[in-house]
UniProtKB/TrEMBL annotation:
Gene3D superfamilies: Glycosidases (3.20.20.80). Keywords: Carbohydrate metabolism, Cellulose degradation, Glycosidase, Hydrolase, Polysaccharide degradation, Signal. Its EC number is 3.2.1.21. Residues 1-27 form the signal peptide. Substrate binds at residues 56, 157, 202, 333, 439, 446-447. It comes from Bradyrhizobium zhanjiangense. InterPro entries: GH (IPR017853), GH_1_N_CS (IPR033132), Glyco_hydro_1 (IPR001360), Glyco_hydro_1_beta-glucosidase (IPR017736), TAT_signal (IPR006311). This is Beta-glucosidase. GO terms for biological process: cellulose catabolic process.
Length: 487
């Protein structure tokens, strides 16, 4: 995936650009009450976790009645996966989950974010459920709880049943949204006696644009902008239907919310006018998904820019989409936009990113630690939420295995230390970030990169499936133990 695609194209995910925005709606001022603090670290009760997703780690794609997903088909298209690998085996987590849970416990994590493979539970997406599929997640949840680890479940992390793609065009149809709601109800009914926190869809901004717009991800389509806006609207509708399903079929007290790769905007210079510009930018650049979820309306600027490409909907759909959530999950890796105030158009101007801007092992992963300070702070203000979780943050690294068999990933430690210091800065100011999930527990199948990009705290030899802790695992263990960023 080129830097040009992964960064500049992300600006189109919300369907907006600086040139097309005008008359922004003013953000609402809120001041969340500061949580209790423990010395100079993070708030007391801060949730420390790590994360994976089903297709990236489970393997066993043809076992125990699992149906095919769009990724099972996509990875077999020549040239789509950088190293030609698939998720057929991945980390063998389906069989090694007890070993992997032991790794989570070793870190001291009290929470684990995982996703349910929709085609493992419903091989065709709908119809008759597969009891062996549900049984795996029952065993996984029980083993987590046995080890004192809270399960945080994601309903959808991109592995759409292929049957729904074939029959309805996947997320192009509201039929898929309705079926997703039924699937969410089934999972909630059977797992929320033990699972208390549920994420709905992971990264609509990524799977819509990359999967249906530029063909980089499954299902590999290149559709026009009008269809993309409609698909994004459908994914928001699916989110709302899932929220309602969890409320109706989950145990009392189950919490639910989205997990989105928010288009991260930060002020280039910390002055009142530039901070205000970043606030406007954050709302408008996320106008096609997060804002409609959190407010129940598309902004005037979004609709004006979309013009004839705007999604078609009825008011009843907006009510479903904006079903109240209990928390906001934000996946934050790198700044998409640094902005300054502007007296033109929308009131802000995104700045070009210089070629010399520092980045990690992945070219797209620019190092902007202040992003994880500004984005939650502004998001809490714009959308009046008092519970934000960093549902993903982490980095790929060089991860060279040294002659002594160890991985001294000081690049990852540098990245994490700086980001966590900025997150600690945010919580010290009362920004309501309640927890953090590091991506990822272990190296895994990294989508279009295959096995080439390693994001894990644990190195995985994909031939032997041996897991080896990297130096960053010790770093994160110390962060958790001290409840502080370690700066």
């Amino acid at each position: 995936m080129s830097d040009k695609v992964s960064r500049r194209q992300f600006a189109k995910i919300a369907g907006l650009s600086a040139a097309g925005m005008a008359n922004p709606v003013g953000a609402v001022e809120v001041n969340p009450a500061p949580p209790p603090r423990t010395g100079t670290g993070f708030p007391a009760g801060f949730v420390w976790g790590t994360a994976t997703s089903s297709y990236q780690v489970e393997g066993a794609v043809n076992e125990d009645g699992r149906g095919a997903s769009i990724w099972d088909k996509f990875v077999r298209i020549p040239g789509k996966i950088e190293d030609g690998t698939t998720g057929d085996r991945a980390n063998e987590h389906y069989h090694r989950y007890k070993e992997d849970i032991a790794l989570i416990k070793e870190l001291g994590c009290k929470a684990y974010r995982f996703s349910v493979a929709w085609p493992r539970v419903f091989p065709d997406g709908d119809g008759k459920p597969n009891p062996k599929g549900l049984d795996f997640y029952n065993r996984l949840v029980d083993e987590l709880l046995k080890n004192g680890i809270e399960p945080w479940l994601t309903l959808y992390h991109w592995d759409l049943p292929q049957s729904l793609q074939d029959r309805f065009g996947g997320w192009r149809s509201t039929e898929t949204c309705k079926i997703f709601g039924d699937y969410a109800a089934y999972v909630a009914e059977h797992l929320t006696d033990r699972v208390k926190n549920v994420f709905t869809l992971n990264e609509s901004g990524r799977f819509v644009y990359f999967g249906y717009g530029i063909g980089i991800d499954a299902p590999g389509l290149t559709l026009p902008q009008a269809e993309l806006n409609q698909i994004r609207h459908n994914s928001a509708l699916a989110h709302g239907l899932a929220v309602q399903a969890v409320r109706a079929h989950g145990r009392h007290g189950t919490r639910v919310g989205p997990a989105e790769n928010i288009d991260a905007c930060a002020p280039a210079i910390d002055t009142p006018e530039n901070v205000r510009a970043a606030e406007i930018a954050l709302r408008e650049m996320n106008g096609g998904y997060l804002n409609v979820i959190m407010t129940g309306q598309y902004t005037d600027a979004f609709l004006k820019f979309a013009g004839p490409n705007a999604p078609k909907y009825i008011d009843a759909e907006l009510k479903i989409i904006s079903s109240p959530v209990d928390f906001l999950g934000l996946n934050i890796y790198a700044p998409q936009n640094y902005v300054v105030a502007s007296d033109q158009g929308a009131g802000f101007m995104p700045l070009p990113i210089p070629k010399s801007f520092p980045h990690m092992n992945s070219d797209w992963l620019r190092v902007g630690p202040e992003t994880i300070y500004w984005v939650p702070k502004l998001a809490a203000k714009i959308w009046k939420t008092d519970a934000i979780y960093i549902s993903e943050n982490g980095t790929s690294g060089d991860d060279v295995v040294r002659p002594d068999g160890k991985i001294y990933d000081t690049d990852r430690i540098m990245y994490l230390r700086n980001y966590l210091a900025q997150l600690q800065r945010a919580t010290s100011e009362g920004v309501p970030v309640r927890g953090y999930f590091l991506w990822s527990l272990m190296d895994n199948f990294e989508w279009v990169y295959g096995l080439n990009k390693r994001f894990g705290l644990y190195h995985v030899n994909f031939d032997t499936q041996v897991r080896t802790p990297k130096l960053s695992a010790s770093f994160y263990r110390n962060v958790i133990a001290t409840n502080a960023a370690g700066v």
